[in-house]
């Protein structure tokens, strides 16, 4: 319930935030920098595309019509390196052959001589480390010619060619088009060296050589790691659990909450108004559109060797995204209405109105406590990760699906933080906790199911085992719930937004451009700007200055 924030509360929160900030820096921020393979900043996408375009012309004689660059990384291998603490060994021996972070440049040539093509570059140096071209028309070459061509390229990359080097031939059915409707037989070669083994994982190069219009071309040279079966089986099992949590728990409960929100918005309409939450819904929906537009190209590019204008796949992705955004908007709106009505019916005013006295002060205080609680939550998260690492052997892998470099409008990347803060707090806290409290009569018991569902929705992030995020976010989720009950819904939203913005801003400072860093700084202080403007507008509005207004807060919740 909302109570005035006393000076003692401010003192305790400030001290706790200072301690938490130190814990976060020492236990989470600085150790994360140790996993960086270089202190350099990534080259630009334009540089990557320029280098890849020139290489395609040099290697094949073809001219590039269109090219797009995406940040890419081998999730399974980076997880393997993290789990067995092999970062330094990778840096020393394997980074030059298979950089952890790469640009994948998907290309389309003039005349469509290539049905698919990708060039892989070191994200930081721009050096080409691999490529894969599928020609519409090509002929096989003899094994002897193929070996000579492959060895010539390996010598250029300083790959050890000695008695420990093996070149093994394999045969496969090669997919010619994106739909897999046409395949053909092709010969490939696996190149490995007994010295290039990291723990139990063997580095190998997947190569292919063809005859294209009388010219011998190495059309594929991709470095990969053959991970031990026990590790890959474990990852498949954990990914299965993550999908089960996401689609079997998060999706189902979210759908049920959406339906219930519509029903309870109607049932409790006399306790609220259907105009409440409309602006917040519009803001969340606009942000959702921007975020999805920012990620749609990379979603297509990282799925295969396709470009973002790949007809059917583009249309299909847009349609699914539009439906998801629309359904989300409906859920947010009715969750605002129903959530507000449910809490007011139970005697709680967790979300005061602009017309009410002291609203400006409430928003300003909510912003300040939101910052402090967000920092405290980051410290708590750091301790949780430390404990889970010791107890469960928790480890993480690279996931570039939401990388800053794969976001079309990188300077707007922190909008993801605000989208999560608005949508998740209203669905799982304001409405989710509210409806279960109506049924169970106990706030902390009521918070469990919506908090579990919220945590389940984050298990697809590559943090292993999958139960790690469940445990971590149930604790963090209860912190959000406590903040909402103690300081109000607005404070919980500010806390969530600041929490996510800090984490996102770190990546922008580390990997972003100057513009990205300026934007990160702006978004870090955005809650202050928002709260200041709202307080100023509220003070200017005459009908909010009631001479006999009750003491802050405007309404005392019932027990």
Automatic annotation (TrEMBL):
Query: What GO MF annotations does this protein's record show?
Result: hydrolase activity
List the Pfam families: Rce1-like
Q: What class of enzyme is it?
A: hydrolase
State what protein this is by name: CPBP family intramembrane glutamic endopeptidase
Q: Which domain of life is it from?
A: Bacteria
> InterPro entries annotated for this entry?
Rce1/LyrA-like_dom
Q: Where is the CAAX prenyl protease 2/Lysostaphin resistance protein A-like domain?
A: 410-502
Q: Identify the EC number(s).
A: 3.4.-.-
UniProt keywords (A-Z) are: Hydrolase, Membrane, Transmembrane, Transmembrane helix
Show the stretches that span the lipid bilayer: 244-267, 279-300, 312-334, 369-391, 411-431, 494-511, 517-537
């Amino acid at each position: 319930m909302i109570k005035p924030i006393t000076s003692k509360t401010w003192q305790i929160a400030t001290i706790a935030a200072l301690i938490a900030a130190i814990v976060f820096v020492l236990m989470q921020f600085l150790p994360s920098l140790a996993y960086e393979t270089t202190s350099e900043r990534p080259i630009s996408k334009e540089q990557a595309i320029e280098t890849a375009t020139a290489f395609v012309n040099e290697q094949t004689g073809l001219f590039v019509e269109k090219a797009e660059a995406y940040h890419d990384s081998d999730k399974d291998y980076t997880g393997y390196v993290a789990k067995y603490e092999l970062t330094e060994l990778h840096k020393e021996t394997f980074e030059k052959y298979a950089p952890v972070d790469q640009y994948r440049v998907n290309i389309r040539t003039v005349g469509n001589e290539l049905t698919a093509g990708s060039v892989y570059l070191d994200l930081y140096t721009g050096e080409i480390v691999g490529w894969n071209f599928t020609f519409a028309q090509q002929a096989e070459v003899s094994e002897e010619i193929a070996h000579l061509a492959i060895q010539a390229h390996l010598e250029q990359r300083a790959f050890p060619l000695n008695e420990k080097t093996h070149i093994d031939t394999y045969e496969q059915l090669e997919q010619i088009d994106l739909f897999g409707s046409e395949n053909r037989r092709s010969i490939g070669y696996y190149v490995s060296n007994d010295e290039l083994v990291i723990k139990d994982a063997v580095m190998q190069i997947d190569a292919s050589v063809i005859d294209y219009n009388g010219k011998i071309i190495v059309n594929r040279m991709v470095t990969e790691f053959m991970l031990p079966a026990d590790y890959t089986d474990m990852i498949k099992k954990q990914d299965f659990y993550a999908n089960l949590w996401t689609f079997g728990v998060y999706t189902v409960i979210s759908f049920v909450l959406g339906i219930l929100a519509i029903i309870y918005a109607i049932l409790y309409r006399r306790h609220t108004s259907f105009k409440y939450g409309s602006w917040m819904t519009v803001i969340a929906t606009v942000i959702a559109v921007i975020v999805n537009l920012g990620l749609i190209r990379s979603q297509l590019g990282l799925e295969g060797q396709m470009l973002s204008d790949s007809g059917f796949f583009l249309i299909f992705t847009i349609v699914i995204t539009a439906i998801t955004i629309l359904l989300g908007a409906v859920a947010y709106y009715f969750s605002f209405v129903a959530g507000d009505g449910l809490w007011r019916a139970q005697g709680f005013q967790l979300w005061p109105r602009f017309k009410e006295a002291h609203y400006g002060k409430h928003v300003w205080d909510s912003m300040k406590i939101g910052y402090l609680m967000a920092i405290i939550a980051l410290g708590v998260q750091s301790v949780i990760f430390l404990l889970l690492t010791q107890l469960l052997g928790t480890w993480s892998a690279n996931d570039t699906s939401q990388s800053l470099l794969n976001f079309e409008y990188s300077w707007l990347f922190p909008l993801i933080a605000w989208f999560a803060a608005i949508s998740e707090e209203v669905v799982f806290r304001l409405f989710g906790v509210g409806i279960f409290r109506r049924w169970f009569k106990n706030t902390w018991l009521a918070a469990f199911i919506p908090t579990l569902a919220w945590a389940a929705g984050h298990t697809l992030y590559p943090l292993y085992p999958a139960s790690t995020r469940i445990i971590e976010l149930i604790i963090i989720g209860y912190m959000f719930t406590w903040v909402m009950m103690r300081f109000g819904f607005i404070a919980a939203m500010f806390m969530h937004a600041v929490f996510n913005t800090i984490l996102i801003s770190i990546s922008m400072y580390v990997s972003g451009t100057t513009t990205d860093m300026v934007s990160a700084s702006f978004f870090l202080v955005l809650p202050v700007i928002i709260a200041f403007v709202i307080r100023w507008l509220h003070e200017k509005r005459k009908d909010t200055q009631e001479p006999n207004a009750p003491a802050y807060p405007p309404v005392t919740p019932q027990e």
